[in-house]
Structures are given as C-alpha cells and as structure tokens.
Amino acid sequence: MKKVGIAMIGYGGIGRVHAMAYRDIPFHYGLPADSFQVVGVATSRPETARAAAQEIGCEVWTADYRELLARPDVHAIDCCAPNYRHEEIVLAAAAAGKHIYCEKPLAMSVAEGQRMVEAVEKAGVKTQMTFNFRFFPAISRARQLIEAGFVGRVFSFRGRYHRASYIDPNKPLSWRLRKEVSGGGALFDLGAHVLDLIYFLLGDFSSVQATLETLIKERPLAAGSGEKGTVDVDDLALLHVRLADGTLGLVEASRMGTGATNDLQIEIFGDRGAIRFSLADPSFLEVYDVREPDQPFGGLRGFRKIEAAQRYAGQKSPDWTMAPGFVRCHAECQYQFLKAVADDTPAVPSMADGLKIQAVMEAAACSSDEGRWVDVAEVYHE
Asked: pTM to 2 decimals?
C-alpha cells in the first residue's frame, strides 16, 4: 500500500473511534506501521486540537482545518465534524484535491449533498461514507446469500436501530438536538445506518411514509441549569418504505428505546428463505431455508445460526474465530477507503450513495410534515 497522509477534522467521540481504528489497521493486515499516517488534527479550539494531537500521536494540530488542506503530505481528510459543517469542509477539501472520508449523514439536506457530490466528481477525488455496519462479515454474507437467490422473492423487510441515549429529560441540550446544527435527530443519527443497510442488501428506495416525533420537547441548556431550550429534532422515527422493485418494509429509529444500549436488527423475509442480523450477536447471521424438509422430529427446518465472525479477506490478526466489534467494522470501512486511495480504485460506499440515503430521509421528513406518502424522486432526481 502506498503511504497515505490523513488529516482528521473534528475529534469528538466518533473521531476518537476513527483514530483507534487507524492505529489498529496495520496489525489487522500485517502492514508496515507507516503505510498511512494521521498527519494532523483540526478541532474548533486550539486547546482541544492540541489535546487530540497528543492522544493520536501526531505533531500537527490547529483550529483552522484549512491549514491541513494546504499541506502536501495530507492526501485525504477524515471529516468527523458536526453535520452542519460537512458541506463547507468537503467543498474546501475537494478544491484542494484531497480525498474525503466523511461521517454520516452526508449533509443537512439533499441540496447540500448534491453540491458536495458535484464538487467531488468535478475534482476527481475519491470519497467514502462512514456506513461502517456494512463491514461486518455477517452483512457481507447476507448480501452474498441474497444475490445467490437464497431468499428468493423478497416479501418484506424490517430494520430498526434503538438506543436509550436520550431517555433522561435532564440530559442537556447538545448539538445533536438542534436542527440548525444536526439537520435531524434519530433519523439522521441512527436511521441513516438502517437505511444504508437496506439499500446495500436490497437496492434503491422509491417512496416513504413517515412519522417523526419529538418526545421530550425541552431540555436544560447545560448540566444542572434551570434554563431550558427547545428540542426541534426527532427522538423517534417510524417509516413505511417502498423499494424501487415495489417491496415494502418498515424502518424504526429511536434514541428513546429504554433498555436498548445499541440495538440494531435487520430482518428480510422471502418465498425461499429469511435472514436476520443483530448487532448484539455480530459473529453470526441467522437464516431460515424453506427448502429444508418439514418432517416431525426429523427435519432441520427452523432458523439457524451460520458463522461469520471475523472473516475479513486478507486479515492476519486477530484469528477469524474471534467476535468482531464496533471498532473493527470502522477499521474495515477506513481500510477499504485507504486501499482505494492507494490503489486508485473506486471507494464504496461513496458520497453518491450517501446522497441517496439523504434523499430518503428528506422524503421522510416531508412525509411526516404533510401526512402522505412521498416519492424519493420529489426531493432528488439522479
């Protein structure tokens, strides 16, 4: 792999996860430690940038990300900034000729996303979205089975992502709860992952009927503060969706799922079989085969687990039998991006893929506001 210099822009919780994953990649694939390098980090304040650089182990830190874009040893950026800054950063990086790895969601709106995709395509730089859950081997195995016809004709599907991260009404108002900064709530934060997995496994979306609900409408401005501010994004998103081939499904995203720590599940039902994936048990994919004989006390029909674990092509460590984790799927997503940059091959999922998910979310918001089915083509034309 040719050496790739990376600039991290933004270093909150997810930025730290990305930095951990970059450090792990050489060990996973037996690569020299200098195959790629985090050259520098930019955050909104000098003191946080300096602290981030000390954690990462890089020498360059700044409160102005443009300083990193000007460096010849930076070949790619990793955008972990809040959603409202994505467009500005991506346009500047594209103009500087840097490849771009971007956290989800792509943008605040379809219009922003279209400008971003146009800019990167014009600049000829590679882009990849952080849809990291694609990179669990069980999801890759699910796609392989679907493409091979195991499920047959898909009757319906269901995807959900529940967390309990905002059930406390005293949790302070953060940027994720302000539409002007985040663009959306549970749908943008969690639903984007579910929608991408459905898109990855089953194809394009056609239309959506949605209800977006804010369950706690005011929160303290700061911890312990008696002054409150308005929450103007969704805590809960319930979607009926129709795919381009007519298949119907359900998508749920909630940050109010009491008892759920990180509960993502995908179920696909067809005339020949069915598939289930749960983030709680990522080493396995559950499958049901209609073609198995239905014999009392003698047949094998029923859901069964098939192993996936860490079946990553080319991985040297850890042993494939070990259970994969959250950071590992991030590492694989980032590795595939770096490999695409070094080998000059397409990076997937691209910003164009991210724009498709953005369009479904925007159609869902429109549907919730207007109380009707909304065609994705109403908000986005390819």
From this structure: 0.96
